[in-house]
Amino acid sequence: MDLEGWFLWFILFWVVVLISLMGIGGFFMFRKFLKALPKQDGKSDLDWQNIYLDKTVHLWGDDEKALLAELVSPVPELFRQVAKEKIAGKIGEIALEEHATKINLDLIIRGYIIASPKRDHKFLRKKLKEMEIDTTNYDHLFEV
Fold it and tell me: pTM for this one?
């Protein structure tokens, strides 16, 4: 059987597509693997995130949860839950450091800015502007 004409191109196309998809999937799996590796203190980034979430779950009110869900709404749905957990973990870390008695708007915004990568800051500014939240007090965090 000779591979000629359109069938050859069909097979080559699918080889390229499958290798590309496996490479993309492998990249995301490897990133998750790195986050799960223990650091010098014996806990991974994911472990610390879960510790902060567990220690501060009682500080969250319904309004604060709704605000976080609204802020995370521009994130694609596939990644939204992971982003929400990462941001809530950072907010919890800040709340524990400051001995906060309740999660408030200031903690949520600071935690969101610190937890999100720089490339997402313009989207966050846009979302905060849509929600009519003044960001002048947080400009120093956007530059970090």
Answer: 0.76
